[in-house]
Amino acid sequence: MEEKSRKDHRALLNPGEENELEVFGYETQNLRRVLCLLISVLTCGVLLLVFYWKPQWRVWATCIPCPLQEADTILLRTTDEFQRYMRKKVICLDLSTLKFPISKNPEEPLVADRYSVINQAVLKPELKLRYIQVQKIRYVWDNVEKRFQKVGLLEDSNSCYDIHHTFGQGLTSEEQEVRRLVCGPNAIEVEIQPIWKLLVKQVLNPFYVFQAFTLTLWLSQGYIPYAVAIIILSVISIVLTVYDLRQQSVNLHNLVEDHNKVQVTISVKGQGLQELESRLLVPGDILILPGKFSLPCDAVLIDGSCVVNEGMLTGESIPVTKTPLPHTENTTAWKSYSLEDYRKHVLFCGTEVIQVKPTGLGPVRAVVLQTGYNTAKGDLVRSILYPRPLNFKLYSDAFKFIVFLAFLGVMGFFYALGVYMYHGVSPRDTVTMALLLLTVAVPPVLPAALTTGIVYAQKRLKRKNIFCISPQRINMCGQINLVCFDKTGTLTEDGLDLWGTVPTADNCFQEVHSFSSGKALPWSPLCAAMASCHSLILLDGTIQGDPLDLRMFESTAWIMEDFNVDHCKFGISASNVIIKPGPKASRSPVEAIAILRQFPFSSSLQRMSVVAQLSGEDHFHVYMKGAPEMLARFCRSETVPKNFSQMLRNYTVQGFRVIALAHKALKMGKFSEVESLTREKVESELTFLGLLVMENRLKKETKPVLKELSEARIRTVMITGDNLQTAITVARNSEMIPQGSRVILVEAKEPEEFVPASVTWQLVENRECEPGKNETYINIGKSSVTDGERGSCYHFAMSGKSYQVIFQHFNSLLPKILVNGTIFARMSPGQKSSLVEEFQKLNYYVGMCGDGANDCGALKMAHAGVSLSEQEASVASPFTSKTANIECVPHLIKEGRAALVSSFGVFKYLTMYGIIQLIGTSLLYWQLQLFGNYQYLMQDIAITLMVCLTMSSTHAYPKLSPYRPAGQLLSPPLLLSVFLNTCFTCIVQVCAFVYVKQQPWYCEVYRYRECFLDNQSNFSTNVSLERNWTGNATLVPGSILSFESTTLWPITTINCITEAFIFSKGKPFRKPIYTNYIFSFLLVSTLGLTVFLQFSDFQDIYSGMELIPTITSWRVSVLVAAFTHFCVAFFVEDAILQNRELWLLIKKELGIYSKSPYRNWQKKLAEDPTWPPTNRTDYSGDGKNGFYINQGYESSEQIPRENLELGGQTTEQHFWTRL
Prior knowledge:
Largest sheet: 12 strands, mixed
Shape: globular
Domain P-type ATPase A: 263-384
Main location: membrane
Radius of gyration: 37 Å
Strand content: 15-25%
Number of strands: 43
Transmembrane segments: 34-53, 223-243, 398-422, 434-457, 906-928, 974-996, 1076-1096, 1116-1137
Number of helices: 39
Membrane topology: Multi-pass membrane protein
Family: Belongs to the cation transport ATPase (P-type) (TC 3.A.3) family. Type V subfamily.
């Protein structure tokens, strides 16, 4: 019973999805609430502050666990490594408030959709429903399934038949009202956060609360100037942060505001057409598409077709044709029925309808699928509003370091308590002084200092046209050691130049027609296919569409016209588009071609086809184009030339992009018969027509950038949707695969009836065929890697299909391939994201650079995604470059490295600054003293504050070094650096403290200050150097004046300058320190000022600084001690701790190796004599190879992308919020 109760108390929200959450049910107890309120009043609101930081504590303190069905409070916890908590109140909806009567009979459904969760969520006869709102999505309690489920969408279990027949006539007005109440408005509302709310959120950050406590204490002790300086800096920091957040909120609000103000026409069952605001739409409504139109929701097309611009989703402003959902009696879920091609029926929110094509007499209609934040655009906005936390070692280490500094402060606190209590000081003064020592250890300037490096880097990136929406990712860029590139539009030019056509006749390839010759393409079925098989549209007299389609069509010299009555004379059926020969076209027996039906291109199907009619003919033709390997499968084998594979390879290995074309005549004369044809029927038994060969040139920046990354030992990988052979050639030409390296083709096959899944390894050989041309041939069974060549460089290349099979059936083999995998071709968007994630699992820091077209998922998944597109879809990419080439990648890595090194330097400096002051103050506390306000002020403002603001402004080094900076604070060199510098400063300060007491002129001023003041009146300031220490006649008795503080202050001050200098290392990640003019001037001027104050004999200066004049020889001794400390610290830091070769030698001698999975795999594979395999085939289940079948695998291509779990994705969370 207890186990059942525990099970009812907990459930999963969005199981298996990226935003998976654990939910726990709690019931509020009034007595507990009253007690917590009482404690909050007694602690002056401290408990409320703790509850604000830890919402789970508030729930645990005021509620008791209960089944979710009875809960009034829900505690949610993320299932990732961060385990973040959220608290939500359960809201109750009463359906009896609706203006029309609702049946209370449990047997009668509320809505017509039998799969709808609404029917299971409403309790009858109470007519009540419980829901929670989490990250803008509404979840209702399902009384049957006993879990919370999303509303605001049609269930995926609906079949094509259900969508046509349940929703085809529209919803009744009563059902619309029910759905509006339950699902909420169809609006993507981004609230512009009030400034006071943003301000409160910033101020209540734990570190700022500690800072407020510190500053209050300092102000009460009269340390006003520094406290005021920190207050001003903090206020500026908070104001800038609030302004930035406010601007982001306003920009995002403006981005989505128009979406909520669209007027739409819907069809209401029994009432006809009705016009209303888009925010009133509900899932299941019938939407009428009038023409040009911005979609306010996700909808599935059921009647007619249309052309949309999906630039918001894909980053490519290319018209996409959408076709209606087929009428079928099949009971399979509609997405499964259409497989991965279901998107061709879906109109996504935020996309623009630019043309509609009604079929028959009725308008173009679509059923509303999803509303509000459930839509594609809503999901994009949610990914910006609720990014996943950034999992970067630096931030977790920084938190540990702060805890360590706080621990030192606590030790100082108890030390001060002991000393002051021992000397019998009043309890109030004892506590005050102890708290002062506690605040010395944790510098209040820390948060501002750590963000300055990122701010400087962000400004420098902006000058290079690289814009960043996630500043915390800049530090991560410094750790990147693998960059994935898209090919088309990223490595190569976006446009394609036509090279020629290779027609076929009598099962043989004919002479090449070269476009460079200037001759018009002769009329043939191949010419007809090129003129008609495309998705181009005529918009305001301009032809628009895919650049490839456009270049292909223009090469025929035909023209496109809208259909009108005059075209009826050609004897062709009514159509939206007519193709006619242009003035420059070759003579043709055909006066016009009408495109009647289109089966759009899909990256998963790798083909498209059209049904067309030639003028003067009463029958129809099918034309098809696509990837040659795919298209050949649909052609009659006798029409495909025998040397097809060889001819295709000859072109692809030279980097050409090749498209194949095919044709067949349909033996039917009625247009109605064409309308009912299925794609499978159309795309079969075709005649192969030939090849269209296009050039895809490398961008001029590609080769130098790849070379620069290679020299910096940063791996480069190509992920493309193009042909594998073309990708290999582009990789060779760009030197992504260096000359002399071997390429091994990995081809995996799905299991068949009696044959398990298999992987074949084929060696690709590179031979010289003619001067200036490299040709690649796949040589199977004739060559292998010899023992002497096994250790040499080799690269794996594979297609998306092979990747999918290996992921499913050879999962243990995948890491072995990835550590040397360079080319991944024919990859779908889902596979790109999956591949980036797999690289991350091997502990690679992955950068992704793409043009945004199909790379959005991968750009968000990578540690640093750079989009070369400015489309709205790229908003979710952390970085966007306005310069459309890959030069932005090395710039980003350089700035990331500089920012990372700066962060480490500032952190080390502030740690040492806290420790230096802690040691000096602790020594003075021993005799109930402390430094003077102006002495602290000199160190705090003139040095530390200015150092923190200027140290990070050193520019990045112009050349990428072949190794990365350290990625974690808790590394031996850094810890040793802090430890040794602590030892050095401790030794110098303790020795000076002890040694000054042994001087013949020493006097315990703090103990005998009345006597000291009486005696000093008998001396003149100019008597002699030996007696000059009595020269200050204006000293005020107190706990400041002493020879100890006069000796320790210049030592601690010069120590601070020393640490700032040695922690500002330049090369190899930053320019030399002297190039940072402000910082260099600051160090020199503060050092000069300190020495001046040390050796000046001006009474006013000594009085103001609360110092005692000493003999010159002692001042020189103090200076020598500080200089010696500088020399030792500089030598140790530069020659030992920053000596990479020394650390590598130590690691080698001690047998310490990297724990990164990819490093371990590289080491294992280098020692494996059987690796890499060549010219062999392995089968799944073969125990000796360690392969296994991954039963838990779900194909990313067979289910919607949003249902995939994207583990390991990282986004921003400032580490201060984890305090």
